[in-house]
Amino acid sequence: MSREKTDVILKQVVKHFLVEKEVTSTLVIDFLFHGLKSLEEKGNKERTIHRISKQVMNLVIDDLESLENKLKCLDDETNAKEIPAATIVSVEKDMFVLVDDAMLLIEEAVPINRLEVGDVGERNEKLLTDVARRALEVFVLDHIFYNKIEVAYKEAIALKRQEELIRQEANSNNKRRTKKSTKTT
Prior knowledge:
There is one protein chain. The protein has six helices and three strands, in the order βααααββαα. By secondary structure, the chain is mainly α. It has one domain (about 5-145).
């Protein structure tokens, strides 16, 4: 119940983030692409995020200037140290898999401010990749929760209601039979 094929999720991501017949920013496309690559490689190599984020920086340098200004404002507001984000989803054999109980993961999906020490450009690259990975993880968590867990819950509730109706029907039939048998005697 905590697994979903990557093809299904990626089709939903495309439908959600890329609007048909409209121009989509290259930043959004690169954001999603490198977030997915980060997810795929996170289980094997933690340091590949840095390499991928450098590629993102080279591809979207113009778009990152505005993000850099926003991050400078954020740096001025808080001087917190980096808090590593817990992984929500892993990719195994063409499947997205939740790494823990869905309810615990939903509680952990609350955004956390993360700041790193280092070069501003390097920080922006890593932050962009982390945000992209986190966005995809939350999207996968939402998809799995809504399409699998919530649907299963609703089916279980409907089944219990059906069973209750069957019991009520059986009880009313038994009462009718007992009334008929008492009248005939």
